[in-house]
Every structure is written in C-alpha cells, then in structure tokens.
Design a protein that fits this description.
By secondary structure, the chain is of the alpha/beta class. It has 2 domains: about 5-210, P-loop containing nucleotide triphosphate hydrolases (Rossmann fold); about 215-280, Alpha-Beta Plaits. It contains 9 helices and 14 strands. The strands form 3 sheets. Strands 6-7-8-3-9-10 form a 6-stranded mixed β-sheet, sandwiched between helices. A 4-stranded antiparallel β-sheet has the order 2-1-4-5, covered by helices on one side. It has a 4-stranded antiparallel β-sheet with strand order 12-13-11-14. Strand 9 and strand 10 (about 205-210) form a beta hairpin. The protein starts with a strand and ends in a 7-residue tail after the last helix.
Amino acid sequence: MIAEVKNLKKKYKKEWVLKGVQFQIETPQIIALVGPNGSGKTTLLNCMTNLVSINEGTVTLLGKRNHDTSLFKEVSYLQDNRILYGNLTAYDHLKFVCDMQKLPRKRIHEVAKRVRMESYLKKRVQNFSLGMKQHLLLAMVILNKPKLLLMDEPLNGLDPTSAINMREILLELAAEGTTIIVSSHNLDEIDRLTNTIYFMKDGEILQESLEQFATKEYYVSISDLQKAQHVLAEHHISFETYYDSQIKFMETDVALQTVIDTLNKANIVIEEIESERVGAERRYRELFEGNVHT
C-alpha cells in the first residue's frame, strides 16, 4: 500500500475543513488534487505529512504511520516557496537536504542538471524568479529519489516553458515508479499529467477517472447548415447545431473523418474545423458550478 487515509478530519477553531477524507493508493501513478481555494487541499497535504495535527483518523504512507519520521527517507513534500531562505544560494539549500538525509553531495549536481538549474545553482534565492524558486523546490524534494511525492501547487506562476519542463520531469518520475499527488489549479496541465483526479468538495474527496472525459469536441463550420443537418441525420451521425453555421460532435460518438467524408460526398463545403479537449475543466465546472475559482 502506497498511501491510506482513513476518516481524516481536521478543524480550525469551530470550522471543519476536512470531514472524513478517505482514499487508498495501491499502485504507482500521478493523482491530481483539485478544488476551489479554501477547499482543504493544502490542509490535507499538511495533515498527511504530519505538519499539521489531525483531529480524527489515520494516515499511513508506505506502510508507516505518518508520524514516523523515518518514512521521509522515501517520502517528499513540495511546499510553497515561503520555506526558502533568500540569503542562501540554491546550492546551500540542496546541500542542507543532502546532509540532513545523509545523501552523497554528488546528487546535487545530478538533480540540478535534471531540473535545468545549473546556471543559477550558486545564486542567492532572493534574486530568483518564481519559476526558478519552483525549480529549486522540485530539486530539493527529488534529491532522495522518493517513492511518494506530494506537491502543493508546483505549477503556480510558471511561464509556459517552465510549466512544460516541470510536466516532463513529473512524467519521467512517474515512469520511474514514483507516486505523485499534485495539487494544482492549472487544469490544462492536469489533463496532460493524469486522468485520475481527487476533487475536493465540502471537506471530502470525490475520486474520479477522467478517461471518459479525455476526448474532444469538434466544431465544423459549413456552407449549407440545413443541407448538412439533413445529410448527417440520414447517415445516423449524432451532432448538435452550434450557432447558425456550425455543427458540433464528440469524437466518442463519431470519427472526424466519417463526418468529413459524409459532407464531402454531399458536396457540402467545410470552411473550418476547430477542436476543444474535454477534460478536467469540464468536470470541474460540473462539480463546482457557481463556485469556479482561478
């Protein structure tokens, strides 16, 4: 068992933030933790790593209770950059982690190369951009080659290039057998990382696989909408009329090429085809309608 959370409850003053969270992770994978601000994502991660005490319930990570400090030889937690010290260099931070965990210092250069931060390894953190800080945090948590990696908003504030680099590293780690629980608001990146999402709502977790949502909607602009409707209906092709010159259909219902061939044979001119991926954002809006936070 990689992780087991049983009936986890946590309250601040009189407000229950976590109301009996339960889940098990039995096989290595990437799991996204998604929910509006204030839904308890960070509290859950803090409770799992014993940084915050829990009111009720138990947490077991890699077969050990979460208050057993020895488990952090194989478990890492990426927090936000407030844990960094501005007057220290990136190398200072990584050296401290190596020394605390009795890791060889050669790991510093191995990880710096992997995270692509060699050029600013000896620079002070106070001069870092947000992306550079996120790279340093990532380097710190993968020094020990963790079996379980918990991450709180690792994609927050990253420019596109940095986000792509972060995604590639996480996918590499997962391929090597690391289980990753990643909290994020970046739903486009979540779609690229995993189909397994734990949605946090009302202090509880809704576990879902988004495989059924990992598809596309196609919007086909055509010259003769009325004729197209008639032809597609004749061929029993499911579609919706969109605006006054487009048809919309799901790739799960019919192949794009089938639609193109059918319209071409009827001499209906296809002016444009647009596609939109249906994934985490669609499901998020369905679950949190009227409560969508960025």
